[in-house]
Amino acid sequence: MQSFSLIQPDDWHLHLRDGDALAAPVPASARQFARAIVMPNLKPPVTAVAEALAYRARILEAVPVGSSFEPLMTLYLTESTPVSEVARVAAEPSVHAFKLYPAGATTHSEAGVARIDRIFPVLEAMAYHRVPLLVHGEVVDSEVDIFDRETVFIDTQLAPLVLRFPGLPIVLEHITTEQAVAFVRSAPPNVAATITAHHLLYNRNAMLAGGIRPHYYCLPVLKREQHRRALVAAATSGDEKFFLGTDSAPHGISQKEKFCGCAGCFTAHAAIEFYASVFEAAGRLDKLEAFASLNGPKFYRLPVNSSRIRLVKSDWRIPGQYPFADEAVVPLMAGESLGWRFDGPEA
Ligand code: DOR
Ligand code: ZN
After folding, report:
1. pLDDT at residue 347 above 80?
2. What does the pLDDT read at residue 109?
3. Which of 65, 172, 205, 304 has the fewest beta carbons closer than 10 A?
4. Using one digit for the tens of pLDDT, what is the confidence trace for 222-253?
5. Which residues are close to ligand 2, an ion, with C-beta < 5 A?
6. Atom of ligand 1 nearest to the CA of 265
7. Would you list the domain boundaries of the chain?
């Protein structure tokens, strides 16, 4: 196939940052995606509807003229989130979900939840209003090996949660293991998962073999090849429980290449091309539209986009850096060639 079009995709998990750092990531996502679920892990975190609306307005200022990119806002759950905030979210069309960060699990998660039972009343209200819970699914226990943190979270936290709140829509974000795939597949229809491009493209050798590559370090961390294969099988299956969420998470070079570098891969510059490469390699390009453009809206009960985009088979070289705030960000596959190119909206 030399070119094809698909319904314009959405990104169901995205970090856009704030302040000076907003100017670069927003156009990168707005170029390809119609909508994106925007993560609330700013500093300080976005915990209330009023803050989410103010953040949304700042994002919209950074959207290029002519783009109709729509940021879908989320709130950051803390142990002091008032139950009353849930009804405010349910009544606000621009805010779509709450994000659960176990305290200490990842970037700017210090204000997250240390004990999940403390937010049970909020989760109950979310189940009642059918407001989705988006989960960073990793335990933070220092005794649990970092490669096992997702699996232990599923067994000890998520499985009981799914049983306790049967009506609660739950998205297990950026899944990385065959155990997560199996769990989501066998869970009831209110449980779904996003999958990133980097977890579909790479196993942990990309980060650790032959030298340590900080730009491949993200959380949850890349896993073994058997897990990558399970993710590819899930994403390309057409199963509506799995949909596109890049977790594109830019950090300036100075924050990545240091003695204790930040977690996050910037992938928005070529997101749909990365996914297309994975689906092509699996012989499943025909399933890309379900994963990228249909399954997410169905889960979130939003309309499917009416616009279309075109991808062409053509090699191009990814730049080594993109501007980011007052420095630069190194994108995924910096300096390498990619076989698919986003060709813009379909005329
Ligand atoms: O790699 C990651 N980066 N994982 C996360 O959970 C957070 C994100 C970020 O905000 O940088
Ligand atoms: Zn994320």
Report:
1. no
2. 87
3. 65
4. 999 999 999 999 999 999 999 999 999 999 99
5. 247
6. 1
7. 11-304
Q: How remote is the CA of residue 120 from the centroid of ligand 1, in Å?
A: 25
pLDDT at 106: 84
Residue with the two structure tokens 């813009």: 344
Question: Under a CB-based contact definition with an 8 Å cutoff, are residues 286 and 276 in contact?
Answer: no
Ligand index nearest the alpha carbon of residue 41? 1
Known catalytic residues are 247
Looking up tokens 């910037």 gives 266
- Who lines ligand 1 at CB under 6 A? 15, 41, 106-107, 136, 218-219, 249, 263-264
Identify the residue whose C-alpha is closest to ligand 1 atom 3. Answer: 264
| Ligand closest in space to the Cα of 138 | 1
The atom number, within ligand 1, closest to the CA of 250 reads 11
Which of 39, 107, 267, 332 for mutating ligand 1's site (highest number of atoms within 8 Å of CB)? 107
For the domain covering 11-304, report its CATH number.
3.20.20.140
* Predicted pLDDT at 295: 98
Question: If you measure from the C-alpha of residue 135 to the centroid of ligand 2, how many angstroms do you get, rounded to a whole number?
Answer: 10
Sheet of strand 337-345: strand arrangement: 3-7, 308-317, 337-345
Give the distance (Å) from ligand 2 centre to CA of residue 112: 14
Do the beta carbons of residue 189 and residue 210 sit within 8 Å? no
